[in-house]
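[job 0412] stage=fold_complex status=start
inputs:
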Amino acid sequence: MASTIVTFELAGREVEVMVKPMTTLQAVLRYQLGFTSVKEGCRQGGCGSCTVLVDGEPMMSCLLPVEDVAGRRVTTLETITPDEGVHPIQQAFIDHTAFQCGYCTPGMIMISKALLDHDPHPTREAIVDALAGNLCRCTGYEPIVAAVEGAAQATAGKGAPR
Amino acid sequence: MTVREYLSPRSLPEALSLMERYGPDLLVMAGGTVAMPLINDGISLPERVMGLRHAGLDGIAQRGDVLGIGAATTLTQLLAQDAVPLLREAARNTASWSIRNMGTVGGNLFTPPPGGDVAVALLALDARVRLAGPRGERTLPLADFFTGFMTNALAEDELLVEIQVPTTVRETAFIKFGRKHANTPAVVTVAIAVERRDGRIGTARIALGAAGPHPIRVADAEAAIVGSALESDAIQRAADAAMRECRPFTDAIATEWYRRRMVGVFVKRALERVVA
Amino acid sequence: MSPALNVVGRSVARSDGIGHVTGRTQYTTDHVFPGMLHLKIVRSPAHHARIRHIDLSEAERVPGFVRALTYRDVPHNVYTILGLIGVEPEEEFVLAEDRLRYKGEPIVAIVAESEEAALDAVARVKLDLEELPAVFDVEEALKPGAPIVTHWGNNTFMYEGHPCRRVRFGDVEEAFARADHIVEGVYDTKPIEHAAIETTACIAVPEANGRYTVYTNSQAVYFSLDNTAIILQIPGNRLHFVGGTVGGGFGGKVDVIVEPLATLAAIKTNRPVKYAYSRSEEMQVSSTRSAWRIYVKDGVTRDGHIIARKVTSYADSGAYSRQTPYALTKHAANAAGPYAIPNVSIDAYCVYTNRVPSSAMRGFGITMASFAIEVQMDKIAELVGLDPWSIRFINAYRDGDVKPHRKVVEDATLIETMQAAAALVGHDLPAEFRTMTSAPRHAGEE
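[job 0412] stage=fold_complex status=done
writing structure:
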């Protein structure tokens, strides 16, 4: 069957993409729109490197036919990065050196963003639980948890900015 | 053949008519957490896929003593309800946040072991499933739904639409034992629901995951505690019986040998948790 | 601190930090090129088999199919990664010819307009195979009558004519005869997949000047370039490899697997070609850390001095040796551990089996030796009635000691490291160990 046009909200504007049936949101973001912060670690829903937010809820974009996000708001690492400087969560990841190879980092920041939006003062246990679907193989989990704690403090009372 | 068409029905009747039109080759998908990995890797090459995300099959409603859970209800939605604590426990111990936002309760019944932890809890709760097809609807006990490894009682033209759970069962326990604390396939999953009469166990349901071709009940283990007050020797007898009865397998997560022993350990611990 | 030091002792922001936290760091598959083709591989479903026939006819009819590559298309199909440093013989087949030696071995490369079409065509290639007996255990592989894995008729890698890497130091048999105790152990380790979050990948792009730019996440860019030039029989100056950004490697990206085929496909089609492993491929067919079996026999005096150590090790190289021969050499140099042992004998075998080839992974060859030796040290301590600290201080090597492979020890820090570790965990060491140093021994000191 022919391609279809799907429309969704990205970075505050409506984007329109022409896709073959069941193209994943991950593939659309990476290969049609150039949003390559959305990584490809497994395409199995197993690593979390492709985590994006759909209407504010974290999802694995590798498992999501783009048709299913028609009319929804999609948030990626690009869309939360300010024009100048960085988001407080990004700053916290730098301050805690919460990365080595960096490949899991976009997904880690997106799941952290979702967590702090839902719960601005998460316990350590809540942070660990939220990160459970995002794998890091350089094993920087401790600095990542510390970065999320740091980001929570930095944004305390204000909520994480969009 | 790459996917030629992705169908996204907006209602149950529309979904059923699409199934009728395209027949058994139509791949039905809800949250996509089981089907999409296979499609992405070229292991599954369906021509047509029907997605249920917008078919109106999600949502949880209490009707008397029964909780009706739409088949496309996400695990995150299941985690948010408080009518059945055992289901919260099961949802909390399944996958990760992002996957719980996608994976569905109905889909969990189609997840091959060692996945399908929510299904284990549903089996312990004696849930029923509502199936819809061109000839109307029928319900049957979940215990009769599973027929083998990745096979079930659904007719080719039927769709699972709802899971019905009694809300009257209060004494329950759930333990999932995996290689990690979270987001991990089960070595073994145990869900238990008991009802007492005069302090003694009247009915007992002990369900196991990753211990058979699908979630299973262990009748001898259940019989071992019926009539008891869950004294430690009754618990031990049940654990021993469960070890004998279970039908575990070897995979990358654990061996059949290890799983069988862990069935004994965790049936015992789950029963002790019921006592506590 | 010296005022001249402006980095040591300070926290310095990583230069790649901003790129990583904003997602702007460009990894290999973040590059997209117009007209880019996708390469997927038909792999062996058998552990060991003879190929009777390959039928591509149905695959060729898949819409989007561009072409298939077989071994006949590869100019120099049999190679050895370490051939660059003189290791022989050439043994690994870029694409299988008549025999399959491990499950997952590449047979045919399919190039297609889309990844879906490539996967579809791969699924439609029909293989007619004759399955052969396979061997999966290092010691089974060395028994007479075992299935022979290699194409030259021998299941061990040959080190200068010997079936194992050998170290001989002193006289172990004489020392065993006068030892108060003999402590023996056998240690097995399993393969480990590196499982970097970014899978192995490259994109080969034809350029207007006749060169090929190859974007790769290889951990060994020049190794990959040189081997690609050899396999494709083209001058190295026609290849421009762009690497350096690696989404996790740990030794898992030092083999030369994707670049030669992607570049060959780019040459044959004159279009950019992407060859990226799926997660399943990464887990199932990329190299692992080797499985090892290590036999250790120690001769020990009643006061805890190890006077002899005999080690026989087998590393499971899988079907091809890749970097494993080098691992065995490192292993042989380190299998006595960081201890001063006057009599040592080591035989370290690199064994071929029908398992997935193993290769480099963090400390390969040595990590497994350390596991075996340190368990052995604890066994010895228990036997002679010493605690685990004491047995290690008593036997620790020091500057000026000669290791079994004749390397004079320099800059030894085992003693000082253990002292620091003891302090960190609040363990009180006896004065003799607290004051011990790695300084060279006095004449006559044990």
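[job 0412] summary: Chain C touches chain B through eleven residues (CB under 8 Å).
[job 0412] exit 0
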